[in-house]
């Protein structure tokens, strides 16, 4: 908190060197963004370096300030939870207290680890050919993206100035001002974007004053960025300026022109870039961020198992724990329901007599539930969810919402929870056993998240609602949102029928 030694004289737009925010003393600005200025800074006693992003709403018009409020909230929320070697670390978020300058009171300052340059600086300094450490940079970006998507957020503004680099080889994604949390299959953001990195559908996917944001937008941006990294800055779509290039992007997406990548790019990298630059969301979504990271890792020649540090609290860890806990047994089959009546005490006997839960599915449902130690994740709950999601139809689909199969998984979301329920070596969201085990893993994780957040009432309702939205939605609303109430009521009705 800042009361002294900041002087009482009027402050210029750029805060003067020596200005103190909390325990941090500002030095020169490192760079300017649309909403704020980033300063080099040092801790006043420990002399550690940092970068401090000051978002000065006092310099904005009332309209800008209003637009800024929501974005700022998202940037702060995501920054505080980002915990990955390839996401810039936010040390603290401060609210300026400066009695000598009341207009600054309450201004937000994000104190981050300081990088030595951005990828933009590196591209500007490179004349042709791949930038130095191109592979490591692309690997870092793809792993950072995979983590963001696994947490069900979309970066939304991936571009060279938002990729930070350190002299020691650090690669950090930064600037979470447009980072948005998914609610279902997509998020919404303000219609702001950097033309050179937005996907073709961005121009048409506007919902009122908001634009639709999907994880595939980050994949597109990665494709553009990878092309630039591999060529020393060449944008894959020709044009003298951003507007001309964006017209060429749209002409490509409409099928009028073909994609022409720089021939100097190695064939295998070019194939990956082309996949990222598929012309529409539907064809691009097959390449999820975890797949992308795997492919980049392989192309970079980095062996399996190389991770900077463990992902504390990540979904991956919970899933691994759960699958180890799965009792062994015969691999469940995908076939239709045709088995004889169950023996008493068998998995197939877990449901009330006359229940419509298909007999063939009962063992996998029971086994999937047994893999979770949370008492709410029962065979009855899984069956109730499957009933409401698909009516137990293995081929169900809602293409409009990008949801498929018995558990109505969205393909890229399934990837974060993917399970090989029938142990056939393939993790497939259209395979009922895989989809059901993944559903149990996800519900198990949601259950733990809610309990950790102090939410203990109506857990089954929150689990059903969380499956339809996200952990964050339920935690933020402290329970089932009204709009999801009809869905939750239906699941709970089935649950009562399936509970013995
Ligand atoms: N932690 C950091 N360490 C070093 N430089 C940083 C850090 N964070 C941001 N920068 C640099 O500061 C500049 C401004 O960053 P900021 O995130 O405010 O905006 P931007 O991404 O350049 O633009 P916009 O806000 O319009 O998207 C950028 O050049 C960025 O590379």
From TrEMBL:
UniProt biased composition (Low complexity): 336-354
Gene Ontology molecular function: ATP binding; protein serine/threonine kinase activity
Residue span(s) of domain Protein kinase: 24-299
Region entry Disordered, spans: 330-354
E.C. number(s) listed in UniProt: 2.7.11.1
Chain sites annotated for binding ATP: 53
Keywords tagged on the record: ATP-binding, Kinase, Nucleotide-binding, Serine/threonine-protein kinase, Transferase
Name of the protein: non-specific serine/threonine protein kinase
UniProt source species: Streptomyces triticagri
């Amino acid at each position: 908190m800042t009361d002294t030694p900041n002087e009482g004289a009027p402050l210029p737009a750029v805060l003067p060197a020596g200005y103190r925010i909390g325990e941090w003393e500002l030095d020169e600005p490192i760079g300017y963004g649309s909403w704020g200025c980033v300063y080099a800074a040092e801790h006043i006693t420990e002399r550690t370096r940092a970068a401090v992003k000051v978002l000065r709403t006092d310099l904005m018009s009332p309209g800008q300030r209003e637009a800024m409020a929501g974005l700022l909230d998202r940037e702060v929320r995501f920054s505080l939870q980002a915990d990955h070697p390839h996401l810039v670390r936010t040390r603290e978020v401060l609210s300026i207290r400066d009695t000598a300058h009341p207009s600054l009171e309450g201004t937000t300052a994000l104190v981050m680890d300081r990088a030595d340059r951005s990828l933009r600086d590196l591209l500007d300094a490179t004349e042709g050919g791949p930038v130095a450490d191109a592979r490591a940079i692309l690997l870092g970006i793809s792993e950072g993206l995979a983590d963001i998507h696994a947490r069900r957020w979309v970066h939304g503004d991936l571009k060279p100035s938002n990729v930070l680099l350190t002299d020691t080889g650090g690669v950090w994604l930064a600037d979470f001002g447009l980072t948005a949390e998914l609610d279902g299959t997509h998020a919404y953001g303000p219609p702001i974007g950097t033309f050179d990195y937005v996907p073709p559908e961005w121009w048409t996917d506007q919902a009122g004053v908001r634009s639709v944001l999907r994880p595939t937008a980050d994949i597109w941006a990665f494709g553009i960025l990878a092309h630039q990294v591999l060529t020393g800055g060449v944008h894959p779509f020709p044009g003298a300026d951003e507007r001309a290039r964006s017209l060429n992007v749209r002409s490509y997406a409409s099928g009028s022109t073909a994609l022409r990548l720089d021939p100097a790019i190695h064939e295998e990298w070019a194939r990956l870039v082309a996949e990222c630059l598929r012309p529409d969301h539907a064809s691009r979504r097959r390449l999820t961020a975890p797949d992308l990271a795997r492919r980049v890792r392989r192309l970079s020649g980095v062996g399996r198992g190389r991770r900077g540090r463990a992902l504390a609290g990540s979904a991956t860890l919970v899933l691994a724990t759960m699958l180890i806990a799965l009792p062994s047994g015969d691999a469940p089959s995908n076939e239709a329901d045709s088995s004889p009546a169950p023996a008493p005490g068998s998995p197939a006997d877990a449901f009330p007599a006359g229940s419509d839960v298909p007999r063939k599915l009962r063992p996998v449902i029971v086994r999937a539930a047994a893999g979770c130690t949370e008492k709410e994740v029962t065979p009855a709950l899984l069956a109730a969810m499957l009933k409401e999601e698909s009516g137990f139809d293995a081929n169900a689909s809602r293409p409009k919402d990008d949801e498929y199969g018995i558990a109505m998984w969205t393909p890229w979301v399934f990837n974060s929870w993917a399970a090989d329920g029938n142990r056939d070596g393939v993790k497939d969201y259209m395979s009922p056993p895989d989809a059901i085990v993944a559903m149990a893993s996800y519900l198990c994780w949601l259950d733990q998240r809610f309990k950790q957040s102090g939410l203990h009432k109506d857990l089954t309702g929150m689990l059903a609602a969380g499956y339809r939205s996200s952990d964050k939605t339920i935690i933020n609303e402290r329970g089932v949102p009204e709009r999801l109430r009809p869905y939750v009521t239906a699941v709970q009705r089935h649950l009562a029928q399936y509970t013995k």
